[in-house]
Amino acid sequence: MGKLSPLSIKRKSDDDNAGNKRMKSVEAEGGDHAADKVRLPLSEVVSDCEERWFLETLREAEAGDIRMQVLVSQMYNSGYGVAKDIDKGKFWASRGSRIRTSVRKLMNKRPGYNESDSDTDELAGTS
């Protein structure tokens, strides 16, 4: 599996540009005022952010960043920012695990901040 272009990546939603098209059509009609513009649902905004984060992470993973390879594996395995694809998740986990053996444990973890990532417990003991 070589480099993936953004065009070869299956997105979570087929109509990912629908919101942009709606906004452009309102602007084309002369809707310059903020009240005239269509507001996108928060779910569409979040989905767009997830997809952009995935693409940025994928670029860094392809460049050889092991941490990003692990993150791409997690994103594929959970369907975070990209359509869920266990095979691609395993591929990226195997790339990262060539150097870092703990990758297999992290493979099925959902990306992002986790309670266990915090050092709050360590700070509580020092107060």
TrEMBL record:
<feature type="region of interest" description="Disordered">
    <location>
        <begin position="1"/>
        <end position="34"/>
    </location>
</feature>
<feature type="compositionally biased region" description="Basic and acidic residues">
    <location>
        <begin position="11"/>
        <end position="34"/>
    </location>
</feature>
<feature type="region of interest" description="Disordered">
    <location>
        <begin position="106"/>
        <end position="127"/>
    </location>
</feature>
<protein>
    <submittedName>
        <fullName>Uncharacterized protein</fullName>
    </submittedName>
</protein>
<feature type="compositionally biased region" description="Acidic residues">
    <location>
        <begin position="116"/>
        <end position="127"/>
    </location>
</feature>
